[in-house]
Amino acid sequence: INAEYGDCRLLIMGGSCSRDKGMEKSVSARLSELESTGDGENPSRAKAGRSKLEEARKLLNDGKYPEAANGMMNAATQFKLAQCYEPAGDTYQLASEVYIKLGERGKETEMYEEAAKCYQQSNPEKAVRLWSYVAETLKDQERTNHFKIAGTYDEMGFLEFEHPAKAAEHFGLAAKHWELDLKPQRMIDSTNAAARAKALDGKYPEAIEMLEKNGKMCNAKDRMKNSVYKHLFAAAYCRVASGEDTQRVRVALEGYADLDKVGIGQMGGFEMMEKIADAIDSASPAMFDEAVEYFDSIDGKIDTNKERWEVAMKARIRARIVELEKAAPDLTQDAVFTELHPDEATTAAEASEAIGEEPQPIRDSTSLC
Length: 369
Hints:
Order of helices and strands: HHHHHHHHHHHHHHHH
Helix content: 55-70%
Structural class: mainly alpha
Number of strands: 0
Mean pLDDT: 83
Low-confidence stretches: 1-16, 332-369
Largest sheet: none
Number of helices: 16
Strand content: under 5%
């Protein structure tokens, strides 16, 4: 016991823990602010959280760091149960600061993980920052936990949906760590997510290459053959959204159908893509809507992130078809019968000459028999 600080205990963790008055004052002030947390969705849980927070603050001010940190963790759990996610995340972070002082790196990382999970519900940007810190902390451990690191990067990727370049980077790192952890299916899934993020970022060729490679890898492994379709279906989306020629899209779809030995694509997915190609050729938003509506009625939705991606791709494709419709020549009503103005004669003659025909004289209504 350090006599100067009275109640501070000696911790046998590679050395002693002396009281840190600066940390105590800073954390205590923030705990005091959090004691005014509202009732959230469960008043009794929130009340319990405030009470435990007050107890933790008193323990901290008495220099009882282990008890204070544990009290903060319990308070945060109560706030989380009350769905007061922001205060819960803040409290977990404060607990991590005390665990840092105690030299407990494992508990420090655990508190940051819990805080990140809370912020996912209330503050995605803050959640990404904390997950990033967690990933770096996990890398510094004596024995690298690739499983946890990969899962952390996946979480970051999901949270960065609105920032596709960052999402692609996170998912790519997740795939590398899944590979190091000898989890090929998880590696392929993260690669799929990275490719879809690249497509959102407009990098269609890279996305198509990654997705087609995934499809071939799954086709080569018996236990992954059921996954072939989802990668090739996403690749088909990328081809259509990129503005690729529809004939090339159809050729690619034929190859995808051949590779999809299980035949899941024959249940409507590839057919929808063919109909979308028809809609593009006809510059018909109505044909596109009909194709999509029918497929959505039979396609089960189980992956929210994938569904959001498909919605984004559909919006891009439909916008392209609308533009094609606007640019199409007007062949309705009397437009096709409108007589050329005399000063257009030169233009018409030039056009005929360009395609190797004899220029024809422009006739006005008086020359018609």
